[in-house]
Amino acid sequence: MAVTANYESVMIVSLKKGEEAVQTVVENFKNLIEQNATLKNVDEWGKRKLAYLINKESEGYYVLFDFESTAEFPAELDRKFRINEDVMRSIIIKKEVE
Fold first, then answer.
1. How far apart are CA 29 and CA 76, in angstroms?
2. Which of 54, 55, 71, 97 is the most exposed place for a label (fewest CB within 10 A)?
3. In whole angstroms, what is the distance from residue 71 CA to residue 60 CA?
4. CA atoms of 67 and 25, how far apart (whole Å)
5. d(Cα 30, Cα 65) in Å, to the nearest integer?
6. What is the pLDDT of residues 30-82, one digit of tens each?
7. Confidence of residue 1 (pLDDT cuts 50, 70, 90)
8. Whole-model pTM?
9. Which CB contacts under 8 angstroms, 24+ apart, belong to 58-61?
10. How many CB atoms lie within 10 A of CB 63?
11. Which 8-state DSSP code applies to residue 1?
């Protein structure tokens, strides 16, 4: 049986292409996580002001994913975050066992 761990990921989606594009990106990553891991929770924080400009944008759409997967999947998810031009920033954190 594969060893799994709990992970948390936050991504900031660009608002340049509009609300529909944001929802498409969120749904695509939600589906990707569901296909490769056990998605526990999706928390859409919504549009928030950035601490500093990123690609000349001052706001972004924040989404938190809480999931459980094998150790290989977070690397693949990070790769997908990096190649998607609509994702401004992202981070994946392995949660400690309580």
1. 12
2. 97
3. 29
4. 18
5. 8
6. 999 999 999 999 999 999 999 999 999 999 999 999 999 998 999 999 999 99
7. low
8. 0.90
9. 59/15, 60/12, 60/13, 60/14, 60/15, 60/88, 60/89, 61/12, 61/13, 61/14, 61/15, 61/22, 61/26
10. 22
11. -
Q: Which residue has the tokens 């400690």?
A: 96
Q: Are 69 and 21 in contact (CB under 8 A)?
A: no
Question: What is the CA angle 83-84-90, rounded to 5?
Answer: 90
> In one letter, which amino acid is 20?
E
Cβ count near 69 (within 10 Å): 19
